[in-house]
Structure formats: structure tokens, C-alpha cells
Write a structure and sequence with these properties.
The structure holds 2 protein chains of 2 kinds. Chain A is mainly alpha-helical. Chain A contains 13 helices and 4 strands. Chain A has a single domain, classed as ABC transporter involved in vitamin B12 uptake, BtuC, CATH 1.10.3470. Chain B folds into 2 domains: about 250 residues, Rossmann fold (3-Layer(aba) Sandwich), CATH 3.40.50.2300; about 130 residues, Response regulator (Rossmann fold), CATH 3.40.50.2300. In chain B, the strands form 4 sheets. In chain B, strands 7-6-8-11-12-16-17 form a 7-stranded mixed beta sheet, with helices on both faces. Chain B has a 5-stranded parallel beta sheet with strand order 2-1-3-4-5, with helices on both faces. Classes of the chains: A mainly alpha, B alpha/beta.
Chain lengths: ~350, ~450
């Protein structure tokens, strides 16, 4: 029982990342009609915002310590971060320790800016082009972005730890007399994802801006005829979708050390999530994200793998095929939406 | 008329044979003047450095390339000579190889077998490389080794740790200086016994490809020989990034040791996930839970950061070794590049010198002469103590290091500490050992 509950938690946690990325993908597809294969790269750029802030906070000055030697036998250059020199070792150390949560504030404007530049600079030129062209150009953009990141940060994973206070494990089953030990940061990630998803839905549901965007998603032409500049709003939505992917990336860095390829690792899965959820359906994307995350976790269980060897590698695609055969529009896709 | 028909048939037959000959890739042919593939005829000789320049092991590949460039510099008489000064063989004079200036071309393996073969083929066919070396993956090494055997050039493997490279996939034209999975198991087992005792239950997570399989087999055999039980061996997809769903079952498996047969990004992520789930604080069967990473890489350990602290594994070489050869290499490399070399850089540098030395001793670039010079070659001064290139399988036998993630690193390079230098005799095995069975070196192929 403990094992099953643990895999549900793992699935929800994985699903959080899938859902956040798929939510952004669906927002872009639903508003602009663009199949954005560079969306995984936005997740990766978000993660590297955390890496960048960590490096900024660790910028150091060097003092030569004659008593210590480096690997070549020369006097050792001891590095002291400026932050620690300015605020003292305790406060400075805490600021460095909290680099990842602080990176949320750092990443939001950067990601909105990246999204804006990406949409205005490149993607808007492909609105009226076939989806195949959009896929090619955004996929190419994703490769360029990851190579740029690799040039500056290298190919190896870079450790970006969570704050000490949020490291370690918590027994989530203590209240019900069970032993369900789970990493604190993963719990934080799940609630963070729920918060972001809730925020996006509230924004679309309860604000005038959101109402206009939803109207534009349903009938862009009519909204345009009412004198509303829907393109500008859709550009802002692209920036918001980029920020969502970026924040998902920032918070993911303590779970797995980021590398330049992490966006591609999530991209294909996230597209499957969008298709399973139903193209253009925001609730569908979220539901499918969590569902596929949980199924993927269960497929990794030894009991399941012993019955169906290799199932953990294909489960998501098997489920996608079954759902598309039985519900061609996906779990929550509606007739007429995104259908020519 | 009949004469004409017979003549035409002959013309067609001759044409077909000639056409087939022309159509054959030039890699499998050679001019009648050449005694072997890419025989150097001018004042220089070209070596092919086939390393991952893109893809997940690009940083490791970059370090390998640095080592190759350093080796070429030393062979041509530049720099301080590095390990040429400590190498027991004194055939190398710093005037190139057999008096020919050493030049090189590079290829990008991308850590993909097909891309690695294509780049090696290009270096052999277009650039005239007489030897190919490099790589950071066993899959790539085995693929390129096979190509070099067919092409008639020598292959000096870079970082490849699968038993199969010098086991079932060994080739006469291929040589491996790096250690292998069996040696990791043989070196680690006594240390694990001293640290954790003989009554342990191990759980393996294994990367699902040739290297992972052979390492899992080797480590399980070595630990079971100590009396450990192996409760489960779980294969994980190479493309996996989040290992949480593979780690969770470990918690309830009754295991008190987790063996991570992972390398590169897989190792970084699985180790990080295992530590996140609190495995290291867990007490199972009345014992502290332990994690073992049989193959360590300093470059990769950096990605796992503090999570490597106190975790044991094995490595081919480490820059903190205090023998003359290691110190000479670290000094040369560190002075040129500003940081210490990785184990990948070390093995690539040594392989280049070993090839050059074999050519000098043989007095020829002919691959068969080089094979003869390397087979059974005993040497020292290259960082791992007295070393043998065994004739039967072209595997180097030398000391193996058991290392541990350092608790209090003094620099970003100071991540691992050497716990034990396992003597060569302890990691040796018979050429017909079952874990290496099924292969055949075959005959050396000079190509022409």
C-alpha cells in the first residue's frame, strides 16, 4: 500500500511538470494556433535562469592564501562571494542558499521577454503557414537555443540545490499511521504547480483580459471585428505561457540537475499530454499531465514490469493510442475546436 | 558473329568486375603501391581523434581532445614532454613518429554509434588517418572498433568500460587502456566488505544497454561472492531523467545497498534522486543504507554536487595520484589548460603515446606490426603502475582506484579522494573468463 501511495505521489510530481509545460503549449496553440516545438526550450531556459542567478550570487573575488596550495603547487586563490562579503557569511550564505526560490522573481521578466521576442521576432511570421512549417521552424529554434545554452554552460548537468530548509524528507503518512517518506522539495514542486495552474485558470476566468482571450480562442475573427486588438493580447499570452514553462524549469532544477538537453526530454511527452488532453483544452492538458505522470510511475513498478517487460518505456504512447482510438479529440477536446 | 559475341561477353564481364571494384568503398581497398591502409608517404602522419564534440558527453569529449592535442605537442617535441619523460619505454624522441611530424584530424561521435562510424570512416577515407582513437561510450567504441578492423587501421579506445569491448566484441586491430566492469567489481568488493560487511542485500538500478548490463553482471558477481544477496536488478531506460519511480520501490524492497549502474547524466540524476528520497539516512535490516556508484567520473560527479559525499566507486585514474607519471601529466595539462585532467583525458593521452611508441618500436606504421608491438607489452610510468597490454584480448591490466566522494572538498576539482589503489593482480582474470566469452580477436587487418 505504501508503495502504491508513493507511486501516486511520484506520478503527481512528474505530472506537475508535464501539466505546466502542456498548459503553456495549449495556451499558445489555443490562442495563436501555433504548434510550438520550442516550448521545451523555454522550460530549459527557465532552469538556466536559476543556474544563472546561482552563478551571479556566487560571483567572487579572489584572495591569495600563501598557506594553501592549488593542484599545481602554486599559492591557492581563495574565492569569497561578494554577497557574503557585503552581508556577512550568515545572511550572504542564506541568500546563496535560497538561489532557486529567488530565481522565480528573476525568471518571470526574463521569460516574458524571451516569449515576447520569440513571438514577435519569429513565430508571428508563421501564423498563416502550415503546421509543418511551424513545427520545423520552432524545432530549429529549440536546437539553436539549446546549443547556445551548451556553448555558455557546457554539456554536463549543473547542480542547483534547493535551500537547506527544504531539503530532506517528510513523512506524509504520519497522520494516518503509515510510512510514506517523500522529498520535501517534490511536495513544494507539486503545490507550486497547483498554484500556477490555479492562477492561470483564475486569470482567464475572472479577469476582463482573460475573458477577451477566451473569446478570442473561441472566435478570433469576431473579437477582432469588435475593435479589440486580439493579436496584442495573444502576444501577451505567449509571454505568460513562456513564463509558466520557465517557472516549471526553475523549480525543477533541484529535482534533477539541469543540462542543455532537458527541454527536449520533456517536449515529446508534453505534446503527447496535449494531444491526449485534447488540443486547445486547458483543463484537458492539466488532467492528462497528471494522468500520464501517474501511469508512467505505476509502469515503473517492479510488479508491473515483471508482467510486461519494457512497459515503463512505452506506457505513455500506448495510453495515447488507446485514448485517440476511443476519443479522437482527446479526453476533453471539443468538436470544432482546432478542426479545419 | 560468334567471335564478336564472345568478345562482347568478355568485355561485359571485365566491365562488370571493374565496375564492382570501383563501386567498392575505397575504405576496403588500397592502391597497389601501399602496403597497408593510409601508409604515410610524406613527412607527416595523420591521427584521427574521434570524440563526442556534441551531445551529452561533449564536456568529456572536449577534455579528451585537450589531452590528444597535448600528446601531439609532446610527440612533436613541444611543451615539457609530459609522460614521455616518465614512460618506461624510451623509443619516443620528441621528433614525431618515425621522424614524421604528427598531425591530426577530429571527428564528432555525438555519442551515437552511426555518427561515430561515419566520422571515423571519413577520417580514414578522406583525411588518411592511420589510427583512430577516442570515444566516451562503450556502444560507440564497439562500433568504431569494428569499422577500424574492416578498414585496416588501429583503434585505440578512449573511455569504454563495458566488458564486451575486449570480450565478445574484441578485435585484433583494437586496444583498450581503460579498465572494465569486471575490474570495477574486483576492486570494489574487498573495500565494500571492509566497510559494509558480508551480510548485505543489494538492489541494482542499471542503464539498459551493453555497458550497464556487463557492469551489473560484474558487480553482482563480485558482491555475491562476498555473501551479499541481490534482491533485484532493475533496468532503466537510457533516456530516463527522473528516477523517482525507480527509487521508490527500493524503499520497501528490504535492500540495504543501492548499486547505481549508471553513467553520465543518468548517474547524476539517479544519485540525486536517491539522496533526495532520504536513502542515505535510512536504516534497513539494522544497518545504515548505503549507495555505491561502481564507475565514477569526476566531470559527472560535479553535476551531482554534495550528493556524492561519502559514496564509493571506482575509477581508472585520478589527478591526485602521486606517482611520477601522474604528476608529470597533471603538470603539463594543468599548466596548458588551467585545471587538472579527467580520467578520460588521461586514458586518451596514454593511448596516443602507446600507439606512437609501438610504431617506433616496430619501425613501421603497418597495423600488423603495431599489433605485434603492443601485444604483451609491459610498461610503467603512465600513472597506473606496471601495466600489461595482454596479447589474448588487447586489454590493459594495471592498478584500479577505489574512490569516495570527498566530504570537505577544497576546490571544484577536489570532488573524489582515493581510498585504495587496488593492485593489478587483484583485478586480473583469465582470457576465457565467462564474462568475456564469445568473442574472437581474429587476425590483424592491414587493409591493403
Amino acid at each position: 500500500m505504501d508503495a502504491i501511495l508513493l507511486q501516486i505521489l511520484n506520478g503527481l510530481d512528474k505530472g506537475s511538470a508535464y501539466a505546466l509545460i502542456a498548459l503553456g503549449l495549449t495556451l499558445i496553440f489555443g490562442t495563436l494556433g501555433v504548434v510550438n516545438f520550442a516550448h521545451g526550450a523555454l522550460f530549459m531556459i527557465g532552469a538556466f535562469c536559476a543556474v544563472t542567478l546561482q552563478r551571479i550570487l556566487n560571483l567572487s573575488f579572489e584572495l591569495v592564501d600563501e598557506t594553501q596550495k592549488d593542484f599545481l603547487g602554486n599559492p591557492l586563490k581563495v574565492k569569497t562571494p561578494y554577497v557574503e562579503a557585503w552581508f556577512g557569511p550568515d545572511i550572504g550564505g542564506s541568500i546563496i542558499d535560497w538561489a532557486v526560490p529567488l530565481a522565480i522573481l528573476f525568471a518571470i521578466p526574463i521569460m516574458i521577454g524571451v516569449g515576447y521576442v520569440m513571438e514577435r521576432g519569429l513565430i508571428k511570421h508563421f501564423y498563416k503557414r502550415p503546421h509543418a512549417d511551424q513545427i520545423l521552424v520552432t524545432f530549429g529554434l529549440a536546437i539553436v537555443l539549446q546549443e547556445v545554452v551548451k556553448y555558455f554552460y557546457g554539456a554536463n548537468p549543473i547542480q542547483t540545490p534547493a535551500p537547506d530548509a527544504l531539503n530532506g524528507v517528510v513523512n506524509l503518512g504520519a497522520a494516518i499511521g503509515m510510512d510514506i517518506v517523500y522529498p520535501v522539495w517534490r511536495v513544494v514542486y507539486f503545490f507550486f504547480a497547483v498554484l500556477i495552474i490555479g492562477g492561470i485558470f483564475s486569470f482567464l476566468q475572472f479577469t476582463t483580459f482573460g475573458m477577451v482571450v477566451r473569446a478570442g480562442m473561441a472566435d478570433r475573427e469576431t473579437v477582432g471585428l469588435l475593435g479589440i486588438n486580439i493579436d496584442r493580447r495573444f502576444t501577451i499570452m505567449f509571454g505568460i505561457a513562456a513564463a509558466v514553462a520557465g517557472l516549471a524549469g526553475v523549480m525543477y532544477t533541484p529535482i534533477n540537475s539541469p543540462n542543455y538537453h532537458m527541454g527536449m526530454d520533456f517536449l515529446v511527452l508534453s505534446f503527447v499530454v496535449v494531444v491526449v488532453g485534447g488540443m486547445g483544452s486547458l483543463p484537458g492538458a492539466v488532467l492528462a499531465g497528471f494522468l500520464l505522470g501517474v501511469l508512467e510511475s505505476f509502469a515503473s513498478m517492479n510488479e508491473v514490469k515483471s508482467l510486461l517487460p519494457g512497459i515503463d518505456q512505452i506506457i505513455i504512447y500506448v495510453v495515447a493510442i488507446i485514448i485517440l482510438l476511443t476519443r479522437p479529440r482527446g479526453l476533453m477536446g471539443r468538436k470544432g475546436v482546432m478542426e479545419e | 558473329m560468334s567471335n564478336f559475341n564472345a568478345s562482347r561477353r568478355r568485355v561485359l564481364k571485365t566491365g562488370a568486375i571493374a565496375g564492382a571494384g570501383v563501386a567498392l568503398p575505397t575504405i576496403f581497398t588500397a592502391s597497389s603501391a601501399a602496403a597497408f591502409t593510409n601508409e604515410p608517404t610524406g613527412s607527416s602522419v595523420t591521427l584521427g581523434f574521434n570524440v563526442p564534440q556534441t551531445g551529452p558527453y561533449a564536456d568529456e569529449g572536449a577534455d579528451e581532445l585537450r589531452a590528444y592535442e597535448l600528446a601531439v605537442e609532446h610527440l612533436n617535441g613541444g611543451g615539457d614532454g609530459g609522460m614521455m619523460n616518465t614512460f618506461s619505454s624510451k623509443a619516443l624522441q620528441g621528433n614525431g613518429i618515425l621522424g614524421k611530424k604528427v598531425e591530426y584530424v577530429t571527428g564528432d561521435t555525438q555519442t551515437k554509434s552511426d555518427a561515430a562510424r561515419a566520422s571515423a570512416k571519413s577520417m580514414i577515407e578522406k583525411d588518411g588517418a592511420v589510427m583512430i582513437t577516442g570515444g566516451s561510450s562503450s556502444g560507440v567504441a564497439i562500433a568504431v572498433q569494428g569499422l577500424c578492423q574492416e578498414a585496416g587501421v588501429i583503434f585505440m579506445a578512449g573511455l569504454t568500460h563495458s566488458n564486451d569491448t575486449t570480450g565478445k566484441d574484441k578485435k585484433a586491430n583494437g586496444f583498450r587502456h581503460f579498465f572494465n566492469g569486471y575490474m570495477s567489481g574486483a576492486a570494489l568488493a574487498p573495500v565494500l566488505k571492509n566497510l559494509y560487511g558480508t551480510d548485505r542485500v543489494a538492489y541494482h538500478l542499471t542503464a539498459d544497454y551493453t555497458w550497464g548490463w556487463t557492469q551489473e553482471e560484474s558487480i553482482a558477481a563480485a558482491t555475491e561472492a562476498l555473501g551479499w544477496q541481490t534482491v533485484n536488478k532493475v533496468r532503466t531506460p537510457l533516456a530516463a531523467t527522473d528516477f523517482s519511480s525507480y527509487i521508490a520501490p527500493v524503499l520497501n524492497s528490504g535492500a540495504d545497498v543501492l548499486v547505481l549502474n549508471h553513467y553520465g547524466g543518468n548517474m547524476v540524476n539517479s544519485l540525486t534522486n536517491a539522496v533526495q528520497f532520504g536513502l542515505r539516512e535510512k536504516v534497513v535490516n539494522g544497518k545504515n543504507f548505503e549507495i555505491v556508484v561502481p564507475l565514477y567520473s569526476r566531470l559527472m560527479a560535479k553535476g551531482a554536487g554534495e550528493n556524492v559525499k561519502g559514496i564509493h566507486g571506482s575509477t581508472n585514474w585520478h589527478w591526485t595520484l602521486q606517482d611520477e607519471g601522474s604528476m608529470a601529466f597533471v603538470k603539463s595539462f594543468g599548466t596548458k589548460y588551467g585545471f587538472p585532467p579527467s580520467q578520460a583525458a588521461h586514458t586518451c593521452y596514454v593511448q596516443t603515446l602507446l600507439y606512437a611508441d609501438a610504431v617506433e618500436r616496430a619501425g613501421s606504421f603497418n597495423p600488423c606490426a603495431v599489433v605485434e608491438a603492443l601485444e604483451g607489452f609491459e610498461f610503467d610510468g603512465m600513472g597506473n603502475g606496471p601495466t600489461l597490454y595482454r596479447a589474448e584480448d588487447h586489454q590493459c591490466f594495471k592498478d584500479v582506484l577505489v574512490v569516495r566522494g570527498k566530504e570537505n572538498p577544497t576546490s571544484e576539482f577536489d570532488l573524489l579522494e582515493v581510498v585504495e589503489v587496488t593492485p593489478r593482480a587483484q583485478v586480473e582474470y583469465a582470457p576465457d573468463h565467462p564474462m568475456f566469452a564469445g568473442g574472437n580477436l581474429g587476425a590483424c587487418n592491414p587493409g591493403a
